[in-house]
Amino acid sequence: MTVDKLDPDLLEGAAAAAEPAHESDSLDAENTLKPEFVRRVRDGLEAGENDAVYGLVEGLHPADIADLFELLDSDERPALAIAISDLMGSEVYAELNDYVREDIVEQLPAETVADIAEQLDTDDAVAMLEDLDEEDQQAVLAEMEPEDRAAIETALSYPEESAGRLMSRDFVAVPEHMTVGDLIDFLRDGRDLANEFWEVFIVDARFHPVGTCALSWILRTPRSIALTDVMQRDQTLIPVTMDQEEVALRFQKYALISAAVVDADGRLVGQITVDDVVHIIQEEAGEDVLLLSGAGEGDINEPIRDSYVARVRWLIANLATALLGATIISSFGGAIEKLVALAALSPMVASIGGNAGTQTMAVAVRALATNQLTRTNTTRILLREFRVAVLNGVTVATLIGVATALVFSNPLLGVVIGTAVVVNIITAGLAGVVVPVTLDRLGQDPAVASSVFVTMITDSMGFFAFLGLAVASGLVG
Amino acid sequence: MTVDKLDPDLLEGAAAAAEPAHESDSLDAENTLKPEFVRRVRDGLEAGENDAVYGLVEGLHPADIADLFELLDSDERPALAIAISDLMGSEVYAELNDYVREDIVEQLPAETVADIAEQLDTDDAVAMLEDLDEEDQQAVLAEMEPEDRAAIETALSYPEESAGRLMSRDFVAVPEHMTVGDLIDFLRDGRDLANEFWEVFIVDARFHPVGTCALSWILRTPRSIALTDVMQRDQTLIPVTMDQEEVALRFQKYALISAAVVDADGRLVGQITVDDVVHIIQEEAGEDVLLLSGAGEGDINEPIRDSYVARVRWLIANLATALLGATIISSFGGAIEKLVALAALSPMVASIGGNAGTQTMAVAVRALATNQLTRTNTTRILLREFRVAVLNGVTVATLIGVATALVFSNPLLGVVIGTAVVVNIITAGLAGVVVPVTLDRLGQDPAVASSVFVTMITDSMGFFAFLGLAVASGLVG
């Protein structure tokens, strides 16, 4: 832990500088666009005052311009795109939400889309084109320079959400016989190199990566030293077909800034940099809550029709599980007629089990997604969740049992509901681990279907244990 | 989009190199430790064969050694730490799960902890020490070099989860009058600089950052050019008190690799690099599912007692909402006695509303967390969710209404349940947006409490609408 500050005398003569940017009257404390600002843009668009709109938007960072598009209504977006066409650089398109970008791109001529795509890094261009209709995609590709078109077509040939789609073909690779000085001369040579890069890959004659070298090491090493003496040999290679979620986990685990992507023969074909991985980490970690709740992609920019289809399927699946619960209650109709309190209390038993199951399931799904829950520790985690469930079950059952016994002046009813709650919470704890782990072993995404099964188990067990115990205990004749 | 490959002739004479590392018989396809491997380590520890254990673990990456600790049972971890003490470098500690690290660190003498902390970057050292008891913390700090101790004490003076805790004091800052050549000489000078850095900060005489310079630009620019002509003036400055979630959002939005941290006077005090932000993005995005489900931190390494306390509170809160539902059902006891089918069907109406509410709530919570849902577009999103809810409500109500009418040969019962389902799904859609947005405006984390309120609303509305309509429609006398 050292502080690399300067000697104070090095600072002599340094002039006072202007305050740095990014703060403006368009952004609030949370770095989102202010409602007043968006209203002024909206009013300007409505009044057709394109110059005024341009003046407002001109100072924004491309990422904030992208946010502005997302905040406007769908029918206002084309007018904004026209008003600020000079500012619609490739960076804005790269930052746009997929749905919003598709919305705008579909309204542009193929030639304009091709111009934008050519300015983008391959990975951003692929993101822009991959969601277009086959026909529109072909029209855009036909307008592109052969070299760029070939790069995009190659990328599109890899599976969706794979490293091949995510990687950039802009990287710096040099042969292993170079010295640090050779490398610096090569970089200074004014070649058409990548715009920004953080590591240099060292390759052998077969173009297999043999090491990487952070730029800071190069800057700090004398020119005469061989690259093979500076480079790090132990590197994380990403197969071109690897799923983006796996890629994100590697970046996170090994704290990578960039990584070499290799084809099936081990040849270097691209690089992935951490800034492209950051939003994947965010999406993949955030999608569990959306998937578990059955909200599909859960993007607020998704067309209503898509949201409807994704969610209604889930509601219907849950309907089926609720039907099972209703059937169990129906079969105890006689008992309920005799003691109507059973009707009021049985949903509580089911609901508490559901809550406990959801807790355990959320923990298990996250642990599976982050590779913390593996074959090695499944038994330990199951035991752990069993213990937590016993503690929770006894606590909640005591509360609900005593309360019920007092309210209904019926101690046996209290014992019955308490016992049912313990049974259901323990069932929930076990199901909350076993269901997602089983789905994972079967190669399914545990976040997608766990919830239906766990709810089905806790609902059924709740109704069955409570009503069954009520009958078995002689509470109702 | 250009490919920066080499001329093939540059590759002449390059020798075939060894295959790169990270693949071993200890890791499976998903890059997690194989159960057989962990079993061999476990057996070795049990038999006291420390040399054999050392041999097994020796080839692992520090991040994998950290994983190994997490996979072992709590009582096996000290034995492993002893067996491989030579391999327990600072990198292993930096990668360990917080709970597991605390577990191990608490068993080490203060002097050893101080030695490890001195090797770590400030941010990692802080992460290691911040969870210790005040007394243990002081004991460790007392053993440290004054300079390192001062750095950690300063960091600990910032709020938890703030930029000040997260930042590293190892950064490179140079005055604005330097040229590219001056900078390279300064870096080559063999000073005690940061080990790895990706950008150089340019500061004025008051130590205020005026620009940043990626190392790739420096390497590609002639020595005589002034740094102020190469640097990027427009930079994202992170205030030292900023919450880590905000920091993560900035990194993501502006695709940053590193950023300058400034104090209240605008002076450069540290830097945050993207590799430290990546796991925050993952945690913050992943914690929504855990918080919404009421699982607290939801870490499988958390002590059982902590998990119990976090979860039981939530179950008791939900008990209260379930009680409200039970009270509503009870108040319709007369109707249920006359038509016991009401008891079987009312949980379905409540449960479907709960599912629909959870979907919308998950979408709203994610959109709030990623700054996509702001004051500017709340009305539009509410309207959007209303539309989706109407579509879902009509679809599900038709299914359940027709099925009920047929099964019970009672068309009026079908109409009643269908109407109640439409009402409840629309209520759920609105509550799913209004509840989290209101909590957010009140400065609360919408992921923490939304679920209790939304469930309470959909449960109550489900029972009340269904049983109320049954009575009002004259279905039951």
Q: Nutshell version of this structure?
A:
Chain A is mainly alpha-helical. Chain A has 22 helices and 6 strands. In chain A, helix 7 crosses helix 9 (134-142) and helix 16 (274-292) runs antiparallel to helix 19 (341-369).
Would you mind describing this structure in some detail?
- Two copies of one chain form a homodimer.
- Chain A is mainly alpha-helical.
- Helix content of chain A is 61%, strand content 6%.
- Chain A folds into three domains: 139 residues, Alpha Horseshoe (MgtE N-terminal fold), CATH 1.25.60; 119 residues, CBS-domain (Roll); 169 residues, SLC41 divalent cation transporters, integral membrane domain (Tetracycline Repressor, domain 2).
- The first copy, chain A, starts with 34 loop residues before the first helix and ends in a 5-residue tail after the last helix.
- The N terminus of chain A is likely disordered.
Protein topology:
The structure is a homodimer of 477-residue chains.
Chain A: H1 35-46, H2 50-57, H3 62-71, H4 77-83, H5 90-95, H6 98-105, H7 110-119, H8 122-129, H9 134-142, H10 146-156, H11 163-166, E1 173-175, H12 180-188, E2 199-203, E3 209-214, H13 215-219, H14 227-230, E4 237-239, H15 244-253, E5 258-262, E6 268-273, H16 274-292, H17 304-331, H18 333-338, H19 341-369, H20 378-407, H21 411-441, H22 446-472
Parallel strand pairs in A: 1-2, 4-5
Antiparallel strand pairs in A: 2-3, 5-6
Helix pairs in contact in A: 1-2, 7-8, 7-9, 8-10, 15-16, 16-19, 16-22, 17-22, 19-21, 19-22, 20-21, 21-22
